[in-house]
């Protein structure tokens, strides 16, 4: 649906990037568009901008809101409440 929305609204996907993004200086890397790095941020973006999913009645507003709520309650919050393996290693693993 996002691709169709981009085509219909003639959204330019951006110029190709022919550089090693891992070797860029921070100032230049900040200008490179990226997807949300976490599920939490992706859900926040979806909350703010999901009109393209409502076109053609593919999804309903209730479905999107319930899906965001479910993912937040069942995945985001439980992950935030527990230490990651690295945090466990740093603070608890003797």
UniProtKB/TrEMBL annotation:
Organism superkingdom: Eukaryota
Classification via SUPFAM superfamilies: Glutamine synthetase/guanido kinase
Family membership noted in the UniProt record: Belongs to the glutamine synthetase family.
Biased composition regions of type Basic and acidic residues, renumbered to the chain: 12-21
GO MF terms, alphabetically ordered: glutamine synthetase activity
An example Gene Ontology biological process: glutamine biosynthetic process
Start and end residues of each stretch annotated as Disordered: 1-23
Gene Ontology cellular-component annotations: cytoplasm; membrane
Organism this protein belongs to: Darwinula stevensoni
Ranges of residues in domain GS catalytic: 1-91
Subunit composition and interactions: Dodecamer. Interacts with BFSP2 and VIM.
Protein name: Lengsin
């Amino acid at each position: 649906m996002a691709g169709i929305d981009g085509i219909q609204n003639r959204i330019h996907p951006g110029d190709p990037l022919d550089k090693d993004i891992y070797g860029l200086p921070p100032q230049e890397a900040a200008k490179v568009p990226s997807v949300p790095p976490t599920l939490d941020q992706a859900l926040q973006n979806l909350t703010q901008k999901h009109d393209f999913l409502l076109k053609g009645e593919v999804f309903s507003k209730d479905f999107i809101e319930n899906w965001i709520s479910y993912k937040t309650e069942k995945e985001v919050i439980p992950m935030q409440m527990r230490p990651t393996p690295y945090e466990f290693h740093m603070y608890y693993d003797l």
